[in-house]
## 1
Amino acid sequence: MTDTPDISPIRTAVSKNLGARYRAELRFRAAGLAAVAAAVGILVILLSSIVSGGLPAFTVNELELTVDLDEELVDPSGERSEDSLRRGSYSRVLQNAIRTEFPEVTGRRELRNLFSLYTALNATRLMDEVLEDPGLIGTQHRFTMPLADDLDLYLKGLLVEERSFQPQGTLSLEPSDAGVVVRSTATDFRDLAAEIARTLRARATLLETEADRLTERAQELSGTEAEDMLYDADLNRRQAADIRARLEIDAGPIELDNSLPSILVESEGRTVRLASLARNGAGGTGEYLLGGDSVEAENAWSIQVIDTPVERRRVSDQLIVWTRALEERGAISSTFNTYLFANADSREPELAGVKGALYGSILTMIITIIISVPIGVFTALYLEEYAPKNRFTALIEVNINNLAAVPSIVFGLLGLAVFINAFGLPRSAPLVGGLVLSLMTLPTVIIATRAALKAVPQSIRQAALAVGASRTQTVFHHVLPLAAPGILTGAIIGLAQAMGETAPLLMIGMVAFIADAPTLGLEGFTEPATVMPVQIFLWSDGAERAFEARTAAAILVLLALMIGFNALAIYLRRRFERRW
């Protein structure tokens, strides 16, 4: 009788090995899920920042005015001809309309400030409406125009930090030599006075600290540089001493300069900006920014505090008051920003749009499609189906693969040297941009087409040849239709990549400021134009803050186009896909 071998050690070893393999698999799956989660999280953060930054650009605050199209101003010659209408004083028409809203504004400086509620370019838009309908001459016309960009940001809550509250006391306004005296029966301004005092004390402390730092630095130096530092330190100490003197208990009211928050008192259509604030919290002195024809006491009043000082913002208190007054009168309304899609680029953010860049991208991509797709597909067909396998074709394949890895700006240099300098084609034109992007896209289309052709089974070719089809009939009647989904997918992805390119187009001059959209026709291919990525680049460098939202909005439009291209690729692949 034979003894049964003991296999328990083997089972133990196998169990340990399986346990280690299972644990390794779990760790690998966890690492993969963590990588996917990290990628999704980064994508969500990126899209969230772009969407949150671009949403304000899709709405606009419009100012609607009743303009009097006086024939003497609009049609100086009285001929109703286009030349006469173009010589009309439409800026004066808009100025008269806004002055009607605020008849108390008469000074030259105040009027210039009032006219900055909108950009002067709106006069051209008014002229276009009159040219389109000359019957408006001599009538009162409701004209809508975008508010100035900074005021638009203010109404969206993106320009300043402000707060308002309802006081408890009764307000009285009394005229004085300094303007108007604001008094309240309660200590409604006490907290504001204490807050301003704390701000001034903190500023004095910072000045003294900076003075001490400059003094220590000056001791390590000599000559003119040390003297300059000592002078700056002494100046900081004197400023700090002046501030502390203003806060003495026996001193007068606290003066509110442009470095401190603005305090506005509003009551029944009247607005007073305080120039000083009493320490006991009972009021202060100031000047009228709106109204001022009545000094009777009012029970319904409010205090608005603009925490962002005047010296740190682009709009004055007066402009803010006028804007709020127009909004209360219903002359300002928030609507969808059609200017973003109906206008080309502009120096004024409120009138800037993506129409010109969108048309330029369309014309450029038409040239790219016409050149890169046919040439790329036929090149791949020849190399895969007809070309002999020798050193020459191997060299061509290596060069095609290398071209696919060449930086895009190199193709821009090639286009600058060949198409512009050698052939004399116009700069900043969709024709040249399309040629450059075609050169860049060709390797991608060729590689994708060859991969799709290789995926077609050889049995398809052999069966076609076996029933008497020629080589050309086999390729075009059987192989090419079966490879069409992969070819279309690769071509569309390559074109989507070309649509997002910026560097090669910068080299051929498509970074220029283009105020008019190109024509969607044959003549548009040689007209000056820009494209969406370059427009984003230009707006990102804009000085006005409103261009930040325009930049994010243009990115969203470009992303929508890219998503559309990729969705089209997925649809075509599924639509023409065949299984074998």
## 2
Amino acid sequence: MRYLVFITLLALFGLIFEHVQFNHHWMLVPLGALLLVGAWDFVQKRHSLLRNYPLVGHLRWLSEAVRPQVQQYFVEGDTEGKPFSRNERSVVYERAKNIEDAAPFGTELDVYGEGYEWLNHAIVAKPVADTPYRTIVGNAQCAKPYAASGLNISAMSFGALGPAAVRALNKGAAKGGFAHDTGEGGISRYHLEFGADLIWEIGTGYFGCRDHEGGFDPARFAEQAQREPVKMIELKLSQGAKPGHGGVLPAAKITEEIAAAREIPRDRDCVSPAAHSAFSTPIEMLEFLARMRELSGGKPVGFKLCVGHPWEFLAICKAMLDTEIHPDFIVVDGNEGGTGAAPMEFPNYMGTPLHEGLLWVHNALVGCNLREHIKIGAAGKLITGFRMASAMALGADWCNAARPFMFALGCVQSQRCHTNHCPTSVATQDPWRQRALDVPGKAERVYHYHCNTLRVLAGIVAAAGLDHPGQLQPRHIYRRVDANKALPLDALYDFVAPGALLDGTADPSLITGWRSVSAQRFDTG
């Protein structure tokens, strides 16, 4: 069906050629031209959409060319609950293609609109750093710290993405020296092909390290975790787009290879449990992290969560104090995050947005004098250097991104991820569709998007008069609260003083919450 138009034109060309007189063969010129375009679409490697949909794929660009233009350049405004706009994608495309994305004239945003944010600059700006920003992940309990890039590929599993997409991401990450998160589907051979640094995500299904009953298998975990490309291990507690909901891989996308790797049947959706079976209390969770660190040979271990009930994280902090087990990192996933399959209400209404979740985690760690031991990653629509700077000002040490890297692969947000019919070959297991995604070409785009976005972040940091992103503070970012008033983030949000939860000097509401939680249980006692 994808080639129906092309095949129909080919048949029509042959029919006319056979039945019209020779001196009327000029009638074949328009059809011949269309067939040449279709043939070129089929063999070219620049656009996977055109390779999958010769001729018909051009209608997509035509429709975008004639529809009303909301704004020519990237809009930083609120996109919560909506897909990224075409203009937002265009910034990623330009950076991925290594095209200068400078905008002419001036600001095209409503600078007096509520929610508008900006970063103040310094009169004496600093030189832009030549060396890309990195942060060391690994505390005193870690034998093999990892120097993580300021921007890494967020969790997207083999299964949600096709083999060609995983290979392109891995090749781009290897060239750029940044990390590729495997997602909860386990470490596939495609994650290992080009030798990129890996963050191995362990979900509730324990794929890649599960026993025959679906529980955690220490021996299988150790075998995988000690592989050289694996640099960090991330325990997934929840995901921003569907917190409290297990991972979902529709049956239509489960191939024999995926079924064998995950040890699951092919005739039904793969739905991970909503909660872990390896632990049930905060103390047990930390002991599980410590065990994974030991089994991995001392590599950094941490966990990812979208903040839900705030007391649950306080209970984890209390367990850290009681056990003296310190995770090396925590990734805060905002509810702005995306997914290939979830009920609509989950991405729109469940979980805490990134800024509030990030602030809560940072404050709790500071209030317990734990922050110095634990690095914080942030994820949730962090598509630009400014959004990264804003997250870092609130406490993030590095950022993860998923959809921008998908855009670099050619994703057009057709929202067909769960059907196995992705038109651009990114989120499909169909071998014939996958041939359209040119791995070397898309890997270059992944690499360039990463480089150019970090270059912009470095320019922002230098313009603010700082030497590196770690110096960004809440006072550097301003947000307009109404048409007549704007405040720095340190005036909009409350920040806890070091040790304030321990010595009782924090806000009374925080102290009440702190005293009500127990390291022995996630719910309040």
## 3
Amino acid sequence: MTDRQRYDYIIVGGGSAGCALANRLSADPGTSVLVLEAGRPDWIWDIFIHMPAALTMVIGNPLYDWRYESEPEPYMNGRRVSHGRGKVLGGSSSINGMIFQRGNPLDLQRWAADPGMETWDYAHCLPYFKKMENCLAGGDDWRGDSGPLALERGPATNPLFGAFLEAAQQAGHPLTDDVNGYQQEGFARFDRNISRGRRLSAARAYYHPVKSRPNLTVQCLSLVHRVLFTGKRAVGVQYSRPGTGPRTVYGGEVILSGGAVNTPQLLQLSGVGNAEELRPLGVDVVHHLPGVGENLQDHLEVYVQHACTQPISYNPALKLRNRPLIGLQWIFGKRGPAATNHFEAGGFVRSNADVAYPNLMFHFLPIAVRYDGTPVPAEHGYQVHIGPMYSDARGSVKIKSANPKQAPALRFNYLSTDQDRREWVEAIHTAREILSQPAFDAFNGGEISPGPGVGTDEEILDWVARDAETAYHPSCTAKMGIDEMSVVDPETMRVHGVEGLRVVDASAMPYVTNGNIYAPVMMLAEKSADLILGNTPLAPADADFYRHERQPS
């Protein structure tokens, strides 16, 4: 079957970046836009998507999650690490933890230091962060207050949050007014993508307000098999829907927004990648581009969990007998334990004196639970999520065959470098130091995980290898730049060596940022929309940002 209609832009992927692009590119009524999303719609009645606390019910659930797994990780006892990716309109923003973190301004300075990346520094990116934000706490030189992404500051009223913030200070770490503002380093209440007790995904923020535009078509349950080329020009895509054979649709430009896994997968299926690896799989090579699927980066994390001696944690909310009432509170009032993501506070610190800016991130929860909803063997508990932000381990995404329905091979190489292992040991020591401060004396019922049997550096690394999980931040597999391993032109977002094909998603990041990557991805999409449309870029900002003064040794 062939779709005869031609679109100006075909966006492959209705996830975070895809929804933002759909909004911005269709603003001109004379421009036609088609979005092909492989997952299903984010139906308004699906409470598991829209209820903030229900994230443990969607991650790992095949109705919402592609449920990828890594290849056996050689430095983690051969474990396959689960990797959730959103299988629904809105992508991973419809199943994530709803934490909004821009990263440190110096992350963007690092991006801009690479050849050709000069316009991706903090000054050029800050206006796009502000453009997308609607900070309910108000805007200023660093924050926006009129964008589509409503941002709510976590209330952090549970006494355990107060103990955590006080303990951080007792351990020698500062507080900061806003980790997304002038000073990221320190501890504070976190911003989150929750509005009036509901998850505010990219689909809800960007697509649904404009879905009635006649020039915008969003088609779910549409798996793209490959990009179609005439010579080296992309002219359309081939895709399928359930119960149908291949279809084709044509466009002036094709924009890949499938994320750090699916974008390199689709490029390789389409003949753009390492020719020596594609030909043995029966893929006709369109353009040899060896950087496709390389440079994979992610954040790994563990939970340091404690029992709580006072009945003030949210652990009872996990009990089956309590869930109906909690659900009714949310359905009829958008309130109660189900109306929060529980990631209401945390912070960023440096693990040693050699790093110039924070390389560790903390999320604190007044509950002890795993992402899959598994509670701890304690009536009440609390935990921090902790992990290094700048591992120098690099992995890859590689197709295994020419079958678009076969998941690619994901190799992360976690814990494979000296720096990675050193910072992991520092991370656990830093977390334990904070959780052992006097501020927790009234609540501390003892460490549950990893527990007193894990003390030496070797025991810590063994525990991390056994227990660590992804923080769900895969990125950088089709990086911007102009070196031989770059995939995307940073001035146009076009794929090097071909025409009519662009990439706009987390795969285009050259380096992972510190913190959750949803906010940087949305900024990248906002900025890319101007580049694609040929708009005059927003003027660089002149707002300064905090730099730690390193003491001479």
